[in-house]
Write a structure and sequence with these properties.
This protein is an alpha+beta fold. The protein is built from four helices and four strands, in the order H-H-E-E-H-E-E-H. A four-stranded antiparallel β-sheet has the order 1-2-4-3, covered by helices on one side.
Length: 191
């Protein structure tokens, strides 16, 4: 009987030790698998980062090549190309002239207000190396096309660093002594 109790107690001790070591083994395996998963995740993140950097580098290299080829082109040629592509889209934008100005190169056109807004958006996409310096809108004389505005845009050409940012704050206009007249859609009731 004593022998039986010793064997049972020894068997229970072996089971307890086996259970204890199995718990240790399971926790060790879980730690190793979590380490491996973390390493795989970090490896995947590193590969994604490298792919992003390679794409950014390729994009920067392509934009540098594009800019260098663009610098060799004549400014007037670039503007005429962009204007002709825009005029194929809109028939209510008519180029009057291209002129040189101390601030840059200017464009005079006659267009409706919607075409002017679309032209500015089109130029911001198609001319990243140009910045509008001045935009002047004036109503035409009464005898001319009703609803169209005379507009004058002056663009300056940017360096490569400026053309990448695409957004350059414009300088505020200088104050003149001209009096500004405000036109109200409602006539004054005062006599």
């Amino acid at each position: 009987m004593k022998n039986f109790i010793l064997r049972v107690s020894f068997f229970i001790c072996l089971l307890a030790l086996a259970w204890f070591f199995s718990e240790l083994l399971i926790s060790y395996v879980q730690q190793e698998t979590s380490k491996k998963l973390n390493m795989e995740k970090e490896y995947e993140q590193a590969q994604n980062y490298i792919q992003r950097v390679v794409k950014q580098e390729k994009k920067a290299r392509d934009s540098k090549i594009w800019y260098e080829s663009r610098v060799k082109q004549n400014t007037e040629t670039i503007l005429i190309d962009v204007l002709s592509r825009f005029q194929r889209q809109r028939n209510d934008f008519r180029l009057l002239s291209i002129f040189h100005d101390p601030m840059g190169i200017g464009i005079r056109a006659e267009a409706r207000s919607g075409a002017i807004v679309q032209f500015l958006e089109f130029c911001s996409d198609e001319l990243p190396d140009f910045t509008p310096v001045s935009i002047v809108l004036t109503p035409p004389s009464i005898n001319l096309n009703a609803g169209a505005l005379n507009c004058e845009f002056i663009y300056k050409r940017n360096s490569f660093e400026q053309s990448q940012s695409k957004m350059i704050p414009l300088k505020p206009m200088e104050k003149t002594n001209e009096k500004i007249q405000f036109l109200s859609p409602f006539p004054s009731l005062k006599k």
